[in-house]
Here is the input.
Amino acid sequence: MKRIKYLLLTCAAAVTFAACSGELNPGMDDNGKPDNGETSGPDDGKPDGGKPDDGNPSPEECCIEYTTLAEEILVFEKEAFDSPVASHTFEGGHGKIVFESPVSEIGKRAFRSKRLTAVTIPESVRTIGERAFDDNSIDEVVIPGNVSIVGPSSFCGQLSSLTIRSGVDSIADYAFTKNLLKEVFIPGSVRGIGEQAFDDSLLEKVTVGDGVKYIRYGAFQNCSIGELVLPDSVEEIGKFAFADNGIASVDIPAGLKVLENSVFKNNALVSVTLPEGIERVCIFSFYGNRIAELKCKSAVPPVLEERAFDPLPKRVLVPAASLDTYKAAPVWKTFADRMQAL
Here is the structure.
């Protein structure tokens, strides 16, 4: 009898252990899958109304599509991407690269000189490397908002249309130099614009969004800009940033303390407004402009270097309470006879 009780207790323990460890077979359906008579619902801990999350990324995150004038499948540097290439197809001028995981970096020179005419950059991309798309014939491009940095010389001499999505963090030196762009909008998410980023282009209109902090040396030099919008968030504008354009009017941002050498040299300026916080206007800042009206809102005359205005403005408006101070200030007194109260 003791032996029978021992066997019964052993069997009961085995059943309990199997139930706790999930090894009991609840039965199989016609497809050989467990069938316990229950249906998964939205509260079963699985996303998308009970559909299991397999963790696989969307196809759009794992591929780059492009068109090219090249006649053969393109060859890329081994380090061009941060995910291994799973497949690479090419047919009729259209290529598709599929990666094992979402590609977050398009590396240095990845697509340089590939005779590309179009490319779609995945939303997963965080970095576009130096010269990544240099020396191609890409007509237009959209920079996704997840991109942290558009690298140096990444899109030189090709674009006629550029869309920079909100979220992009910075634009490096020479990123879009020598392009065919007529208009560009820089979203406020961009902290800064690098040296000569858009220089020697066909730009006619530039709008800089509120939030941009700096615009470096020659960023928009030697274009055809006639219309320029700058936000008060800008704290630094480098030398020659907007030199050699056709800008007719400009309000210097309120956040700017120093206007560097030759920033607006050789434009078509007839109207200029300097903000309250301006402290220094450097040599040649407005050289080569025939300014009809200069407004300076600062109660204290900013330091004005020789030939900052050459030729001199025809009319200068300053705060009424500071009129005499301006007329006696170094360099400002040179055109005291042209000064009037704001």
